Amino acid sequence: FDTCDALNFDTCDALNFDTCDALNFDTCDALNFDTCDALNFDTCDALNFDTCDALNFDTCDALNFDTCDTLNFDTCDALNFDTCDALNFDTCDALNFDTCDALNFDTCDALNFDTCDALNFDTCDTLNFDTCDALNFDTCDALNFDTCDTLNFDTCDALNFDTCDALSNKSLMSFFFKKDLYNATQHKEL
């Protein structure tokens, strides 16, 4: 199903659904992007994007949801959703997750997750994911995820996840701290 453009495009079914754009695109749409899971779900658009999947989630347009590729999740813009954001983008895990903007989630590159700003998500480097600060950054996966700071950092998975801060962490670092005061090498224990 190569292309879908609709004002009242009710249903979209796809194994190789290449492109979809919609104003009232009922089953390929976001803002209510409930589940994202795909084998070859190439492109999806959103206002009520119920199910999506991604191993090859190439492009997504949703109120300007430009492009998405999961193993190569390059760029996404949706309500200023530049590349991996969902007003509540729960999990960020990528092999080549190049750029992310989520409520000011500036850049993310997994294996080279260089910088992340999300409600003050200051800097991230996956193989050396030094510092993380988020309000609802639910899951983080890294090889050397040294430090994590968040208000609701629910789950962290890593090979060398040195310090992880969760709901029960009594010494949770506030996102109000300026990033120049936050030195990961000096905060191995959050």
Question: What is the fold's blueprint, element by element?
Answer:
Layout: E1 3-6, E2 19-22, E3 35-36, E4 43-45, E5 51-52, E6 59-61, E7 91-92, E8 133-134, E9 139-142, E10 149-150, E11 155-158
Can you tell me about this structure?
- The protein has no helices and 11 strands.
- The protein has strands at residues 3-6, 19-22, 35-36, 43-45, 51-52, 59-61, 91-92, 133-134, 139-142, 149-150, 155-158.
- The strands form 5 sheets. It has a 3-stranded parallel sheet with strand order 7-9-11, with no helix packed on it. It has a two-stranded parallel sheet with strand order 1-2.
- It is elongated.
- The termini are far apart.
Strand % is 15-25%
Order of helices and strands: EEEEEEEEEEE
Widest sheet: strand ordering: 7-9-11
Average the pLDDT over all residues and give the rounded result: 34
The rough form would be described as: elongated
